């Protein structure tokens, strides 16, 4: 997939080999930067696919339509894995050359291909299912179905067969931020403990504690997670849609 990667000419003086030859890694660094930009495009595609899937659940489309978006996510996850392996192969090859300092300039392309092929040979379907964006996709679909299934009129899909009034009350309780004690407008979910907070509130909380050089305990009562980090927070699109839907109904 990534055979368009351009190897550098070796006329610069960035790295001197023991035999006197000089090799430049400037072009390699530039190409690596381009490959990493590709990762952002893949991530954008996975975000779009997730939103489309949630739209389908919210509008009660066929399960087959939702499943088709899951297949799209798997395809993106496959591309992401392949790209990560290619980047790793390049980085490891460059580091190996700098570390070993061979007498003659090696065949960089062949070395990268060898490492890349070895990584790809260990691929498994479980790798794809561990992709962070795919895990998020599955979690959001699950949450979305919980929030909206009681509206479909299908008793078999009701939230664990709980009485609808109780289910709605429980949902409304989940709409409240444990920090502000107000209904959330931009909820984010902690991927470590699973609790949700208002985005601005938790980020300010984290920043304040950071200035105090203290760790952040999850503000949800009863939660034992004692090191909340901004990098562990992900937008909870399913919950936001459920809150918006509830507010539209109240109007």
Topology record:
Elements: E1 15-16, E2 22-23, H1 26-58, H2 63-100, H3 108-120, H4 125-129, H5 132-148, H6 164-174, E3 187-190, E4 196-198, H7 199-211, E5 233-235, H8 237-250
Antiparallel strand pairs: 1-2, 3-4, 3-5
Helix pairs in contact: 1-2, 1-5, 2-3, 2-5, 5-8
Summarize the structure.
It is built from eight helices and five strands; from the N terminus they run ββααααααββαβα. It is mainly α and 251 residues long. GO terms for molecular function: SUMO ligase activity; zinc ion binding.
Approximate strand percentage: 5-15%
3D shape: globular
Low-pLDDT runs of 5+ residues are 3-13, 153-170
Number-wise, the strands total 5
Biggest sheet overview: 3 strands, antiparallel
User: What is the N-to-C succession of helices and strands?
Assistant: EEHHHHHHEEHEH
Give the overall pLDDT as a whole number. Answer: 82
* Helix residue percentage: 55-70%
Put simply, the count of helices is 8
Q: Please report the distance between the alpha carbons of the first and last residues.
A: 51 Å
Structural class: mainly alpha
What's the alpha carbon Rg, rounded to whole Å? 24 Å
What strand order characterises the main sheet? Answer: 4-3-5
Structural features:
two-stranded antiparallel sheet; 57% helix; disordered N terminus; globular; mainly alpha; 251 residues; 8 helices
